[in-house]
Amino acid sequence: MSAGLAPINSTSAPRPLGAGRSGAILDAAERVFAQAGFKGATMREIARDAGVAQGLIHYHYVNKATLFEAVVARRSTRINEYRAALLDRMFAPGRDARLCDVVEALFRPTIETGIELASDGGAFARILVSMANSADPTDQALAERYYDPIARRFIDALRRVEPGLGHEDAVWAYMFAIGVGMTMMAKTGRPARLSGGACDDGDVDAMLEKIVPFICGGITALTRKTEEKTGQTGRMK
Amino acid sequence: MSAGLAPINSTSAPRPLGAGRSGAILDAAERVFAQAGFKGATMREIARDAGVAQGLIHYHYVNKATLFEAVVARRSTRINEYRAALLDRMFAPGRDARLCDVVEALFRPTIETGIELASDGGAFARILVSMANSADPTDQALAERYYDPIARRFIDALRRVEPGLGHEDAVWAYMFAIGVGMTMMAKTGRPARLSGGACDDGDVDAMLEKIVPFICGGITALTRKTEEKTGQTGRMK
DNA sequence: GTCTATATTTAGATAGAC
DNA sequence: GTCTATCTAAATATAGAC
């Protein structure tokens, strides 16, 4: 609402969002949905985890589907306001945004929002992973409502920092970048298995140091390919 | 068993693998698991889809979990034999394998096996997507049994065609490549939404033309970063 | 708002005839 | 091998007291 940016590095009151029983239910739902998926999660376990009666969940959130949406809405709103603020700042007059800044802005808010709230531990990120890779119409409807608007902004941002990138290629680049990011959020433990323990997908900072160059390299490769085909340099129009 | 390679571009008898009722159950299970996930799928619907009595599923496959594993085992065995054959051929004496060949060998067998069997329509690919991104111990156990061995071969292959790539970076590169590939297999319809219909994630050939350069660009970027740090050129040892 | 029941549905799995 | 019928457990959601 205000003219200023959102408090990006705010240290203001890291109070748990889940205040009161209603919030405790949301916190518990996030954990259980993350661990078991929508179908696998049960209202009973969520109630037990939240320390409330099962009936109370239905009083506050009506049914399982709207409870799930409430979980998604709560975090994604914060995360995407943060992401939008980073984009605004990056392209403010006089700034010179680079590709790697855009890519980093794609992931940091999701990571930090998880850490900041402390009630999370990567749970919401795992919900995002299953949503992003699901062809289920319900999941895609949520993705469309909560993530497509910011996705379009990122696609535009990619083209601004990488003028040679066509619009279709920018869409693909965005999708691929998200796909790589899912590897980090999923926390499957597979990198450790395949590396004898050397690679740890629990260490997000170490992963970001690999992911950002990988994605930037991938995107510039797409740009080069387009330029070779069209013979354009990107700037001309 | 023989000395020759597996018949890679074989046109021999595209008979459905699902012969008999036992096979029909496997085919139906693949479709239903793909559409609803493990938890969401029901034995009743699988039976109905296969046109058999529900009890027969338990006679052949004991329970839901082993039925699921049978579905995974059937396809992954074929796919990974095909992938192994491509790697063997690629690194045969006198051949000069390139990075893009290795990356393409990562995906083509999964795509073609789906098309070839015709009874699929991308269903198994969607099962793979949810398995690959799941932190559930059961899913990871399947990934370990059916996919880790070939994954290690691909990681080695990446280092052979990209000598400057360290082992840890090769593991990350493999994980990121799989992550990008999932974008193609998931068939969420999101690329079409974000591009006003211009990008179609149902067109795998068009997607491969974007995915392969993206991944190769990403991997060479990782290599360059390592070389900058160590000052090595890759060949020296 | 919150709880304790409980109604209703649906799931995976089994028994036993053919 | 295959079917029909059924058992048993578990899940979502509701009713109604406090």
What's the SSE blueprint?
The structure is a homodimer of 237-residue chains.
Chain A: H1 20-40, H2 43-50, H3 54-61, H4 64-90, H5 99-117, H6 123-132, H7 137-146, H8 148-161, H9 167-186, H10 190-195, H11 204-230
The first copy, chain A, binds a DNA duplex (18 and 18 nucleotides) through helix 3.
Question: Could you write a compact summary of the structure shown?
Answer:
Two copies of one chain form a homodimer. With 237 residues, the first copy, chain A, is mostly helical.
How many DSSP helices of chain A? Answer: 11
Determine the CATH topology of one domain in chain A. Answer: Tetracycline Repressor, domain 2
Beta percentage of chain A is: under 5%
Query: Which homologous superfamily in CATH is the superfamily of one domain in chain A?
Result: Tetracycline Repressor, domain 2
**Structural Rg of chain A:** 20 Å
Number of strands of chain A: 0
Task: State the largest interface.
Answer: A-B, 60 and 60 residues
Second rung of CATH, namely the architecture of one domain in chain A? Orthogonal Bundle
Calculate the terminal CA-CA distance of chain A, rounded to whole Å.
36 Å
Q: State the name of the first-level CATH class of one domain in chain A.
A: Mainly Alpha
What oligomeric state do the depicted chains represent? homodimer
Fraction of helical residues of chain A: over 70%
